[in-house]
TrEMBL record:
A Pfam family this chain is assigned to: Sulfotransfer_4
Stored InterPro entries: P-loop_NTPase, Sulfotransfer_4
Domain of life: Bacteria
Lineage of producing organism: Bacteria, Pseudomonadati, Pseudomonadota, Gammaproteobacteria, Alteromonadales
Protein's name according to its UniProt entry: Sulfotransferase family protein
Cited Gene3D superfamilies: P-loop containing nucleotide triphosphate hydrolases
């Protein structure tokens, strides 16, 4: 896979706080993650060990979208970015993703990481409903997640200041993200947008994208591959 043209930037130092991307899968988490890499941040797209979270400037996808409350407790000064997407586009995209993932999310035999399974079950009830791919079920999951996120981050002015909601295809979304996380981004005269990755049925763009600032989701540290000890 060829990398997209880098976003023109000037970058002055790493962000002062951790950044968590808490949008659901198929809302643009890969595109945001790549954009953050191009801004000079160390990024983990999914993080299943303490070391991955600790070393990354920004973490996206699982388990962030299910664990944002606990991550806020661990990193009370962090910034959180919610990604929105119209339901008529998100639902079929999510159905496509689940059609590929469900066999690997199997509670007993699935090969996916236990934290990924937990996040998907918590948010989408994949072990608790007859058909996790049902359109109405997915709509409800999306709406409940969005409502809970907004209620959590609007419970106080301090929390609200740590929170940004983005729809990636909206004008100025990239510059809004850069401003929110404190990156000085110099945008060229042509319109600068998020890279559009994982188009259509593509679900592996992050694995194929090569960048020296990528953080391995399963990075080992002083405690090997342990994660934080909290419950959701």
């Amino acid at each position: 896979m060829k990398s997209h043209q880098p976003v023109p930037t000037t970058y002055q130092g790493r962000p002062a706080t951790k950044i968590f991307i808490i949008g659901l899968p198929r809302t643009g988490t890969t595109s945001v993650s790549v954009a953050l890499l191009e801004m000079g941040l160390r990024v983990a797209h999914q993080a299943f060990t303490k070391q991955a979270v600790i070393l990354a400037d920004a973490v996206s996808d699982a388990p962030c979208f299910s664990d944002y409350r606990q991550l806020h407790s661990l990193y009370p000064d962090a910034k959180f970015v919610y990604l929105d997407r119209p339901l008529d586009a998100w639902v079929p995209s999510m159905q496509m993703l689940l059609s590929r993932m469900l066999v690997h999310l199997d509670q007993g035999r699935g090969r996916f990481h236990p934290l990924l399974k937990r996040s998907f079950d918590y948010t989408f009830g994949i072990y608790r409903v007859a058909d996790p791919m049902d359109a109405e079920h997915l709509k409800t999951c999306y709406q409940v997640h969005k409502q809970q996120v907004f209620e959590f981050f609007h419970q106080s002015q301090a929390f609200t200041q740590q929170f940004l909601s983005l729809q990636l295809d909206q004008p100025q979304s990239l510059s809004r993200l850069a401003s929110f996380i404190g990156v000085d981004i110099a945008v060229a005269s042509s319109e600068s947008e998020f890279p559009h990755l994982n188009r259509g049925r593509n679900v592996a763009s992050w694995d194929e994208y090569k960048h020296e600032l990528k953080i391995n989701s399963n990075l080992a540290g002083p405690e090997n591959r342990k994660y934080f000890n909290y419950k959701i």
